[in-house]
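User: Hi! I have a protein structure encoded as tokens and I'd like to know what sequence might fold into it. I'm fairly new to this, so please keep things simple.
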């Protein structure tokens, strides 16, 4: 018997005895690898972990995937390395031990028009600045500070609570420039007094600069100030028996009204956000 005949008999014997095993995976016969990870129930209130991390401002989604794979992210105390893992907004997610906030931080500047309130608890039916930026974000963006209803100019909105807290009472102050219209001409002697510092509520108010507006009546002035005290300009001029008829904030921090018409808004640039986050 030849070697070939012997091999054919062995194969036939294997088929008859039921011991024949297919070893070709060409037609979909490859063994299926089943995941051992527990399946997550679909939840409309859950989001992918990489998006959660990216929204917190730590890094991009692509970088978040790298950190997840490396085991840097924990969910409710347990390291998660599974790609596509979903978390709930109520879960405790940490990056290298630091608790993350999944709400994407957004920043909008508005050139506020007259007759819009910035007070949160405003009377029903009154026009509020939030309506002017309603299309900017799905998040609730709040003004960092206030402008009176009749005032105009730059107003910053954000959902970044830490930044809002710092800007409301910065240690070194925040640069603001206003165009004011007074109820009467500002005499040179009073302008000089303001430059030197005026006592308001037993505390001297320091201004960086004040000057008359070019080619305008002397009741119009430009004033640069860093103070964050409430209604400080109104109180300052009241101290000298003047009333502010119009107030327009033309500079706020590093923001200006350039290319931003009254009633319009825009998102802050990445560099502008960085600049504000440097404020202590």
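Assistant: Happy to help. Inverse folding works backwards from shape to sequence: for each of the 280 positions I chose a residue that suits the local structure. Here it is:
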């Amino acid at each position: 018997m030849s070697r070939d005949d012997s091999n054919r008999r062995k194969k036939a014997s294997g088929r008859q005895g039921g011991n024949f095993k297919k070893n070709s995976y060409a037609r979909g016969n490859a063994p299926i690898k089943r995941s051992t990870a527990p399946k997550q129930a679909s939840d409309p209130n859950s989001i992918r972990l990489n998006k959660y991390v990216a929204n917190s401002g730590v890094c991009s989604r692509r970088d978040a995937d790298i950190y997840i794979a490396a085991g840097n992210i924990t969910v409710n105390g347990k390291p998660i390395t599974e790609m596509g893992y979903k978390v709930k907004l109520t879960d405790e997610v940490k990056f290298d031990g630091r608790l993350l906030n999944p709400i994407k931080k957004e920043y909008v500047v508005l050139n506020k028009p007259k007759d819009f309130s910035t007070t949160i608890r405003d009377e029903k039916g009154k026009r509020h600045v939030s309506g002017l930026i309603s299309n900017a974000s799905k998040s609730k963006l709040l003004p960092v500070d206030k402008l009176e209803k009749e005032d105009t100019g730059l107003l910053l909105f954000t959902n970044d609570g830490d930044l809002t807290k710092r800007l409301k009472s910065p240690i070194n102050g925040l640069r603001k420039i206003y165009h004011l219209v007074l109820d009467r001409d500002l005499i040179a002697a009073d302008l000089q007094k303001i430059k030197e510092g005026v006592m308001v509520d037993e505390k001297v108010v320091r201004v960086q600069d004040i000057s008359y507006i070019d080619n305008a009546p002397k009741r119009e002035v430009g004033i640069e100030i860093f103070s964050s005290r409430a209604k400080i300009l109104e109180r300052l001029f009241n101290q000298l028996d003047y009333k502010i008829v119009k107030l327009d904030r033309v500079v706020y921090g590093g923001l200006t009204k350039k290319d931003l018409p009254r009633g319009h808004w825009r998102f802050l640039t990445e560099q502008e956000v960085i600049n504000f986050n440097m404020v202590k």
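A useful reference point when you look it over: The radius of gyration is 33 Å. Feel free to ask if any position seems puzzling.
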